Amino acid sequence: MVHTTYTYKFILIVFKIQGLLDIKFYFKLLMLGILNLFTISMDVNTRYQSFLNQLRSAPALRKTELIYHTPFELLIAVILSAQCTDKRINLCTPALFQAFPTPEKLSKASFEAVFAYIKSITYPRSKTTYLLETARLLVTEFQGVVPNAIADLQTLPGVGRKTAHVVASILYDAPVIGVDTHLFRVAKRIGLASYASKTPFKVEQELMRYLPTEQVQAANQWMLLHGRYICVARKPRCNQCTITNFCNYFQNNQHDI
Predict the structure, then answer these.
(1) In angstroms, rounded to a whole number, what is the distance separating the alpha carbons of residues 207 and 190?
(2) Residue 16 annotated in active site
(3) Which of 119, 180, 188, 202 is catalytic?
(4) Is 257 helix (H, G, I), strand (E, B) or coil?
(5) Is 202 a catalytic residue?
(6) pTM of full prediction above 0.85
(7) CATH class of the domain whose range is 181-256
(8) Residue 226 CB partners (closer than 8 Å, separation 6+)
(9) Residue 195 and residue 199: Cα distance in Å, rounded?
């Protein structure tokens, strides 16, 4: 049977080269491709439905583990949290916020004064510059108020697409996704995003295509925390996972786990 299959494929290649391939074969090939695409789509839809059922049954989660009391404090904390843990940020921000509670006060601070409060986190010199420039821009362009438009947020130093989405989601309930390293990994492992999606933006696009608007925020926070505590990078804790019944990674690797 195997030899017959290879012989048949070889004949088809020869016919194709000679321009003699029957039109019926093209039609069958087209129909097969459409059927395969439909099947893949159905698999994705089924997985998303299972994921949404998980979200609806799970307890409500806090929007963030960062500690803040004002929109300005959240913005600063999110900027500082880039490539750093929330736990570390929460250790240094109380003193920082006490010293500089408003954009006006932070905008007038010296580099050395701010640096002293955040020197224990990642990239402290760059982030000190971001904080000072962001505070000055908030004062001069936004009357000291954290803007609610994502485009405006992205004009602030140290605020990229992910940071802007996180801030807008938490403060203003915007139905957007902030794809960090945890979410980027988890979405692919579960099977909600394709491994062919090589950038956070591509993963974001896939998730937004399938997630209902009202579930975007819950999905964002659930995947972030799942990646932080359960589906960790080096050795995921599948024995503690509640979604192994539809997780693509587990289904393909359960014998090795």
Answers:
(1) 12
(2) no
(3) 180
(4) coil
(5) no
(6) no
(7) mainly alpha
(8) 182, 186, 241
(9) 10
Q: Residue 4, exposed/middle/buried by CB under 10 A (0-12, 13-18, 19+)?
A: exposed
Structure-token pair, residue 227: 């990646």
What does the CA dihedral 95, 101, 104, 106 come to, rounded to 10 degrees?
Answer: 20
Check: CB of residue 80 under 8 Å from CB of residue 118.
Answer: yes
CATH 1.10.340.30 assigned to 71-172: yes
Catalytic residue (choose from 28, 162, 198, 256): 162
Write the single-letter amino acid at 141. Answer: E
Tens place of pLDDT for every residue, the chain, 257 residues? 444 444 445 444 544 545 544 555 444 544 444 433 433 444 889 999 999 999 999 887 888 999 999 999 999 999 999 999 999 999 999 999 999 999 999 999 999 999 999 999 999 999 999 999 999 999 999 999 999 999 999 999 999 999 999 999 999 999 999 999 999 999 999 999 999 999 999 999 999 999 999 999 999 999 999 999 999 999 999 999 999 999 999 999 876 76
